[in-house]
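Hello again,

I reread your note about wanting to compare the complex against the isolated chains. To keep things tidy I'm splitting this into two emails, and this first one only covers the full assembly. Below are the input lines as submitted, including protein chains and any nucleic acid or small-molecule components. They are followed by the predicted structure of everything together. The single-chain runs will come separately.
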Amino acid sequence: MILAFRSYALPILPAICSRVLGYLPILVFCVVAVLFLAGTLLAARLLRHAGSGATDREPYECGNEPESFAHDHRFSIRYYLLAVLFVIFDVETVFLFPWAVMFDQLALFGFIEMMVFLTILVVGYVYVWNRGALSWA
Amino acid sequence: MSGLLAAMLEATGPTLFHYVLVPLIKIAIVLFAGVLPLIMYLVLAERKVLGFMQARVGPNRVGLWGLLQPIADVMKLLVKEDVVPRRAVRWAFVLGPCLVVAPAFVIFSVIPFGPPAATEGGISWFVTDINVALLMVLALATLPVYGIILGGWGSNSKFSLLGGLRSAAQMISYEVPQGFALVGPLLLAGTMSLVGIVEAQRDLGMWFIVPQFVAFFVFLVAGVAESNRNPFDLPEAESELVAGFHTEYTGIRFALFFLGEYANMIVVSSVAVTLFLGGWLRPFPSVEALSFLDLSFLPAGLGGVVWFSLKLFVFLFVYIWFRGTFPRYRFDQLMALGWKWMIPLALVNLFLTGLVKVWV
Amino acid sequence: MAPTVTVPTPLPEKFPEGTVVEQEGMDQPTWVVQREVLKDLALELRDGPETQFDLMLDLCGTDYPERDQRFEAVYHLYSLPRGERLRLKVPVTEDVPTLPSLIDVWKACDWFEREAWDMFGLRFDGHPNLRRILTHEAFQGHPLRKDYDPARRWILTEDKIYRPHPQPPEGEDDDDIFERMTINIGPSHPAMHGTFRVVATLDGETIVASEVEIGYLHRCFEKMAETHTWQQVIPYTDRLNYCSSFINNVAYCKTVETMLGIEAPPRAVWARTILSEFSRIMDHCVANGSTLVDAGALTNFWYMFQPREEIYGLLEACSGARLTVSYGRIGGLSADLPPDFEARCRRLLEIIPPFIDDVDGLIAKNRIWLDRSVGVAAISGEEAVNWGWTGPCLRASGVGYDVRKAHPYDLYDTVDWEVPIFHGGDVHDRYRVRMAEIRQSLSIIRQLLDRGMPEGPVIVDDPHIALPSKEACYNQMESMIYHFKLIMDGIQVPPGERYSMVEGANGELGFYIVSDGGGKPYRVKVRPPCFPMMSTFSRLIEGGTVSDAVVSLGGLNVIAGELER
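Full-complex prediction:
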């Protein structure tokens, strides 16, 4: 299998393919990281001493018996609002990255276009700020 | 040695050799000789440095100057009891710490610790160089948020939940200015390859911190916030939320969260060094008179690695220094700082950088 | 020295004959008040232009089983504008131990009334929350009643634990209820210095309602005092505010000394003043250090603790103990000062200021610290007085009341010093007022050292009060008999009652002591300065975030040993 791959696949791979192969070490690193985690957890499982009584397994409530659990409650709505804002702004960032890399080719046209794009973003940003969505308290 | 390599090359074929086996060796070195010992001794260094800053001595019992303390800590954490709280969501509880550690490790695959191979078949001081490296760094750096929120939510404890929510809110808030800040160096470099960015700094003749100091400042603040460190250590603010999202964690799972935090510190520092402080370049890379600083007497680009490490250590020291100096922000102040100061600052920097590039 | 008081006598005449009667021969003006007129009288006393008793210092019960009206509720009032004190005694019977609650007049009565209920079973009509405060919910009986056997034990079970459910104010939007979360902060929480518990209802991270539970460290010091001789009580006083235990010794000893009509010799007074100021410095260091560490500024905590460590060295040289010194004795001090006392003090004067300056340098202009502390948990001077505040926290709210200036004792009127006053009433000013007071204390100590150490004994030369020396005890018949009598019977304190106060590290530390002429106190009541401040905590933190609550606690300097006695 390997030999076959080597003998005929490699010579015909164009440059683009070798670029893709550049990602292979990352995959390898992922595997190593997962193996490392598995190994650590396994080692701990073999070494650690057994758990003691059931009171250890109560959630921490500053020494009191918990009356309610965290899952009995809803999150505050503000976190949701924040997540929405984040999605909006982070998508902008994603657009900015390729634009920055290709800046030299796009030149003045690209700059103006991005500024128009950012202006729309800033208008939204100012609106959100004025509505008080950025103030946590 | 070269005979062995040649034999392995023969046995596995060029593809596997270049893209699996050599990286595997490099990964092993980066992880087990680089990052992990660095984290262990970073913890010790932090305790020592903080001790000296705070008129006390820090650990000094295990080994000379406490040098064996990290090993003792690891042993202790390995043998400690593992508690999964009653009514915890087990899969989330278990997955949480893993999701914090693994992405932080994988990021090191694209960090250039030193220059690429000068000659064909020489040693490149990085695992791989891809043309979207920065994007990948950003993507992977987001993943720990999931780990923290899963751990905090999965514990089913109120303190953990509050810590997890705080943390998630904080990290995503600071990711926005961090992303904006990174566009500045990208504009100057014209590539997302981290190796390419360092080479662009060499070609420009100066580190990007000089033209992009605003971006550097924003990135620094956001980076400290992203790694949950003082003055932004709210998610685990011990005086408020006990231990935040990892309140319920013990033993090795706790250790993994700990590991993840320090790995993230190193990641942020490495990215900052690469993007703003010239990576493996010496200071003033364009001044010929200082070329002795290249340390060219060292073999095969090792001088670059020395410079990279030095800058990294300075950065890590700054982290510790912050912790010894600053009080902690309150949550609403932290959000205000991120959304109302850092984002406009980064946007203005972006605009000015683009303007200058168009004009010049 | 008796406080100079001129309480207007016409006031009792406004009320029906016999309902307000002045009691003669007391240490301070004392009125015996019938409960029917108590509330009207209290309002009159607070608002009347000739009285202005705006500060309710202390409320306690006393028990005289042989009387028809067995219990007495004793109020100690203070008029800040006029500098006068007044004691009200309200007798009630065992069958109907009921009084009107004065919570509308002085908010400070809130917890004090609960304590009187807990300890004596006095009921206060109109109190919104008259529950046990210091003892366990399952406790039975009222421990400070004379017929309660101190050796009695209870098995207190978990099922009777009170579970507070702080309710947000009326009219809140019901839709938010699902997002509310009630969490316990304490008793086992890193920010609760000492063991108390704050049950907080959160909306997001904002505290919408809260309730403070105390009593985890209650050991009924006041009951123990009744079963020990006068001198034996001293080690217990160490354990009140254990951050500045020597000041407690002094406060207790001075009260008993005035009852005995003796004065400590000049050398002891000189040493007491110096060591009290050092204790104050330690206490302020702890308060500011813990405030800062709760704000995340870890380094300052260690910097503030270093002076404390050094002062402990001095106390150890004097008394042999570091934390609980028990160095004061009725009539003076337990042992002579060490030969290098002055040199040690001078050295401390040199090494403490750099630490204080370092902390100020690190934090005073730090933007984060200012954002965290300015305007946080703020309280106006007027409100603070109504809640019964005294000490540095009150002075941070703009009210410059300091016992050392208003009613000088020891050597405080012979040295040149100022009372620092700030007006913000917030966490930041509570920090600043303490820093300024540390500097004032250092100045007081320096002046006293420059004056030179007085020669002579450190305890009164009275065999009925001070123990004879070991040598005399073993060689002289008479001394041995005195020693035996003192150990077995204790000091004989003449019958009477006394309220006397010193400026403790966190406010007016008063002792109200009743003696029936025996070798043991009949009743000892401590006026703990942090008790009224902690009762305000709910009010301080509501509307703020958890972080605000945590950062404001250290500045109140609530010491559980003193709070719960």
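For quick reference: The longest helix of chain A spans residues 103-130.

B.
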